[in-house]
Amino acid sequence: MHRLVVLGSLGEFVELVKMAKERGYYTIVCDGYDFGPAKKYADKAYTIDIRDTDAVARMCKEENADGIIGSFSDLLFEKITEIAAKAGLRWYATPDMLPYYRMKNVAKQAFDRLGIKSAKSCTLKKDFADGELADFRFPLVIKPVNGYGSKGIYVVNSIQEIRDRFDDVLIRSSGIFDEIAVEEYLHGKEYNMMTWLVDGRVNVISIADREKNPQEEDRIPLCNRIVYPAEDVAGVIEKASEVLRRFAEFTGQKEGALSMQFFCLDGEIYVCEIAGRLFGYEHELVTYGSGFSIEKLLLDYVYDEPAMRAELEKHSPYYPHCCAVIYITGKHGMKIGSQQGLVKLQEDPHVLESILFYNEGETVDNYGPNPYFARYYVDADSREELDRVTERFFRDAHVEDVNGMEVTYQLFLNKEGN
Question: N or C end: fewer C-beta atoms under 10 angstroms in the chain?
């Protein structure tokens, strides 16, 4: 019997663990969450902080694991890469590759060397001179050099704002660093792309439109809708795939997940981020839109490579069905009164599944684990209908605080970017 370690126990791993069990694999789930929902479906569960890679690798050896899998976050990708190397388990990346995926300044150097376009950027130490930004155009985005979860990211309009925010950004880095990343703010149509490499060949799983709304003035706009498939898959797929092929060739990655967030400006690809993982809470949309199972892909990668190759070969990124994830956002620090507007939307016939992240009486915390109020997966027969459904959700998604004041931001369709 195969003995599989799944690194990650949150909701997005539940179906993966269930499928592994159905296949007869002895399934071991591990991460630092005591009550991660995927753990209750596993044969065995461990609560070990994944950043303690020695302890997790030791557990893998003691359990005689013959496979390890995980995805959906930068931190999981980083740590599973280190753990697999220590435990002697197959994995598609090696620790020496990690700086290209996890260090923004190293990735930027690779982009420049390969001629891949991206936002103009640099790194700054706390005592930086004003002249270091002489050639930059505000607004700028400041962020940790290797953070995760979009935390510690700000939009700034002056050098003084960078100095004021420096320590807050620096502390969000995953490790000991003395500098932060700075880049010019890009405007335009934005995309999410997921692929899987086989023998160095880029197999496109999905290309989606990523739409945002501005929230707080000094924060990057939050994503409020991701639509599968993108309206212009044909217009970007060739150039975007070539970017990933060149990047993977440079880093030495021959197989496994490779995803990209990018802009298309005047017909050119501008990379925001390239990640060695699949996007969390989007893989469900891949299944809804195309029938392709990300869970099956991950398990087949470990134990049935011929099946994985066959599924990728017949898959098309031109999905026959339109679907989207809609995120509702609220104002930080407000105490929630009634959520009946959000509850009512859960009953809409276009909703495939949904979740409310807060309870009445709780306080909105946009900088904690729940930056969103609610998440709705929805579908429709056409993109036009999906747009109408989204506009209605944005209009009707009301939440009042304990004093009857509106908590949710007024959202709008933003298909051209901002």
Answer: N
2 exposure class (CB count in 10 Å sphere: 0-12, 13-18, 19+): middle
Give the DSSP H/E element, type plus range, for residue 223.
strand 222-228
pLDDT of 222 reads 81
Cis peptide before 349 (omega within 30 of 0): no
What are the counts of helices (DSSP H) followed by strands (DSSP E) for the chain?
12, 16
What are the strands of the beta sheet with 140-143, ordered from one edge?
A: 121-125, 179-184, 140-143, 154-156
d(CA 34, CA 370): 18
List all residues 6 or more positions away from 180 whose beta carbon is below 8 Å from its beta carbon. Answer: 123, 124, 142, 143, 144, 145, 166, 169, 170, 173
* pLDDT per residue as tens digits for the range 160-171: 999 999 988 888
293 and 300 Cβ atoms separated by less than 8 Å? no
The three-state secondary structure class of 341 is: helix
H-helix or E-strand spanning residue 154: strand 154-156
The helix (run of H) or strand (run of E) holding residue 283 is: helix 283-290
266 against 218, higher pLDDT: 266
Q: What domains can you pick out in the chain, each with its CATH number? A: 3-91 (3.40.50.20), 120-184 (3.30.1490.20), 187-319 (3.30.470.20), 321-418 (3.90.600)
Residue 136's closest CA among 82, 180, 170, 184? Answer: 184
User: What gap in Å lies between CA 83 and CA 51, rounded to an integer?
Assistant: 9
376 and 396 Cβ atoms separated by less than 8 Å? no
Confidence of residue 306 (pLDDT cuts 50, 70, 90): very high
Q: Give the pairing of strands 351-356 and 256-265.
A: unpaired
Question: Which residues does 122 contact at the CB level (< 8 Å), separation at least 6?
Answer: 132, 133, 136, 181, 182, 183
